[in-house]
Design goal:
It comes from Stackebrandtia albiflava. With about 375 residues, the protein is an alpha/beta fold. It has eleven helices and twelve strands. The strands form two sheets. Strands 4-3-6-1-2-5 form a six-stranded antiparallel beta sheet. A six-stranded parallel beta sheet has the order 10-9-8-7-11-12, with helices on both faces. Strand 11, helix 11 and strand 12 form a beta-alpha-beta unit. Helix 1 runs antiparallel to helix 3, helix 2 packs across helix 5 and helix 10 packs parallel to helix 11.
């Protein structure tokens, strides 16, 4: 049995060392087990952050592991795209325990070591079992051909990719994408369309500062190129099956999953209002399409939100949160939010203050993951 309080205290002590923790872990892992190095990207900066986030998620739920099991199962199934196998988990566990012992100092007691061994054993078992089960159902990844690459302005591209075999997902899901120009680097993007008969997937990709994958996809990818697509992840924005009105708040390319949800809602309409924010009207890159759709569907309303400029029909000055709250009509809605972290945080607090049930706010945010 794991002592949850003791494990949390141990992690707090280790996590205080910041970036040194993942640096030590991966150095130990690759030196002791060089055979696993090929599973990881050449550039390890984002991978180091993922380790700390994953450990934090597990430790914060260690007193209720059932709550974190779905997360671990998705992680295990998704790790197949890296080539991770059940036999690799002991090497990771060895490096993890050595790292924890190193940064714990005198606080690393036999009891703490036993807690971590037990916790990691559970994590490894859940992830490996999920990977084995997924292997009987779906590929580890899908290859897909880029059939269209449309550049919008200097920092955005809309790609249409056709997987070579059927890739099933639900509107609101994310999929991870890797380019052969950036081997073993993956970034999450939300399809901007509901599943189609021709299996094509539309991706909205904005250049991110120092973003290796986004740079490859926006600047260097051309029709005919083949990308690698990972299994669907993140159920946060999947449409809930009810008849409640829908409020959508999107910032930038956070519009992509909303577009997919709107396509799904068109098959079974319910009152929906999308507030989409950008710096200027020109940056609302699907404005003509949204206006055309709104004109033909009385259940759907769209309001553009810009930081700079002047109000005009259908366009308001302000961020999506501010504009939506000015409109009111938030009580009784299901709210779906996607955008930069600051916008998502402001939306959640503002919606709760306006009377929206916190359990009815579904959100996802992009940032380091280049979503």
């Amino acid at each position: 049995m794991v002592d949850a309080d003791r494990l949390k205290a141990s992690w707090g002590l280790v996590a205080a060392h910041g970036e040194q923790v993942p640096l030590f872990f991966y150095s130990r892992l690759f030196l002791a087990h060089p055979e696993v190095r090929e599973l990881f990207p050449i550039a390890m900066a984002s991978q180091r952050d993922k380790l700390v986030r994953a450990l934090g998620a597990v430790v914060s739920n260690v007193d209720n592991l059932d709550a974190v099991v779905p997360y671990l199962r998705r992680l295990g199934a998704d790790h197949r795209k890296f080539g991770a196998l059940r036999e690799h988990y002991p090497a990771v566990g060895d490096a993890l325990l050595a790292t924890l012992a190193h940064f714990s100092g005198p606080a690393w007691t036999p009891e703490v070591a036993a807690d971590w061994e037990t916790a990691y054993g559970i994590v490894a078992q859940v992830m490996a079992d999920a990977a084995d089960e997924a292997a009987h159902v779906t590929p580890a990844w899908w290859d897909g051909t880029v059939v269209d690459h449309r550049r919008i302005g200097i920092d955005l591209a809309v790609l249409t990719v056709v997987p070579h075999t059927r890739l099933d997902y639900r509107p609101g899901h994310s999929i991870t994408v890797s380019s052969p120009l950036r081997p073993r680097l993956w970034r999450a993007y939300s399809p901007a369309n509901a599943p189609r008969e021709d299996n094509s997937i539309e991706l909205h990709v904005r250049l991110v500062d120092a973003g290796l994958v986004s740079t490859a996809l926006v600047d260097l990818t051309r029709p005919g190129d083949v990308l690698r697509l990972g299994p669907p992840i993140d159920d946060n924005l999947v449409l809930r099956d009810n008849d409640r009105p829908v409020l959508m708040l999107a910032g930038g390319t956070g519009f992509a999953p909303m577009k997919a949800l709107i396509e799904q809602l068109a098959r079974r309409p319910r009152p929906t209002h999308l507030f989409w924010g950008a710096e200027t009207t020109d940056a609302l890159y699907d404005l003509p399409g949204l206006r055309h759709f709104e004109a033909g569907n009385d259940w759907f309303r769209f309001t553009g939100c810009v930081r700079a400029g002047y109000p005009e029909p259908g366009i308001q000055v302000g961020n999506p949160v501010e504009v939506a709250l000015r409109y009111g009509h938030t009580v009784g809605v299901d709210a779906y939010v996607c955008g930069p972290p600051g916008m998502v945080s402001a939306a959640r607090s503002g919606l709760v203050e306006s009377g929206v049930d916190p359990a009815c706010i579904y959100f996802d945010q992009y940032g380091d993951e280049e979503k």
